[in-house]
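hey so u asked for the seq, here:
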Amino acid sequence: MNSMERKLDAYAELVVRTGVNLQSGQTLFIQSSITAADFVHRVMRFAYQAGASYVHVDWQDETGTRIWYEMAPEEELAKRPDWMVRVYNQLLDQNAAFLYVLSPFLEDMDGIAPNRLDLGSDALYAATADVTNRLMNNEASWTVMAVATKPWADKVFPEIAEDKRVERLWETLFDVLGLNQENPLTVWEKRMKALAEKAAQLNKESFRFLHYKGPGIDLAVELPVSHRWLSGRLENKQGVFFTGNLPTEELYTTPLKRGVNGFFKGTKPFTFEGNVVTDFSLTFKNGEVVEIESMDGADELRRMLQFDEGARFAGEVALVPVHSPVARSGRLFYQPLLDENASCHIALGHAYSSALAAGQELTAQEREEAGINSSGVHYDLMIGSETLFVTGERWDGTMVPIFEKGDWANTFKGEDER
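ran it, structure tokens below
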């Protein structure tokens, strides 16, 4: 077995053991592109070694999806089959684990009328809203991860020889995931422990406000009284720990829907429906985005903000130091799963109720009463830089430095970070 094969196996094992943390007798549901079949088969083998009772793969065909958007009657685009929702709910009821294998930039929707895309996405949101809430409330273990694809590698490494790009992207993924180190599972256990300790320290402070300052940002974020900081190590309703994103370097919480005021200029591009927006800024008043500026993506921003009422409000704030493994790669990945772990960010759209005390049990009405946002979308926008300062304001008005020049303030650094 060559080095590439060993690392792919290590990645698959990490997904099963650290990602969804599959338990003996559990079903694993995998959603993946058919182009990632080789990797998915590796995951299946490790899942059965871990004691899986059954592994079901929901294969996605990007070409078939495009044909559907191009040719299906519009009234059919606005529908989603009931059986899809029933299957998801049944799997959740049976305590299945969910793995989402991303294959970035394979889906090509260029030339398809925006209204047809909107019909399909709106129907999918309406059909799966309850299922999405159940997953976001951690009723089951779930993990999102990515595999290298040729279109993605072309975006990330345009300057190197075309036939070397996919291999370079794989090697970069292995590096940021710690798969080039000995005992990756142990590496991740230590990483998760360090993040959990920082989350506990932030939760002990119970800040009322976060203040973001620096060139291109002046933002005040009010937090719910019952907010709590979470790391990538989550706990499902059965008390099993899992890792929602691989990789993960963030600590995050939920802001008050009406509690964001100020402005920021994005520090990294983001993608929306396949379009890359590289230059943008947003202004908030009483939580709502009231002004946008963009040299190259104003139309995309407006469409994103118009998805529903909640798309104009924030649902997450997250802290990530500028020296994280993803940041050290020096690459823009054009994929939130990676880019959000290289930068502090704020997300527009749906809020994680799990970031409130006992929030997993909140109904839709209780979410509204708690003052957190609900939406059919969740878009991470990067605001971190080496010039960013973040200060926490306690309820008595005292200020505590959290981030200084894009890194943890000394108070929040572990012994090996000082």
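The two ends are 40 Å apart (CA to CA). The longest strand covers residues 27-33.
lmk if thats what u needed
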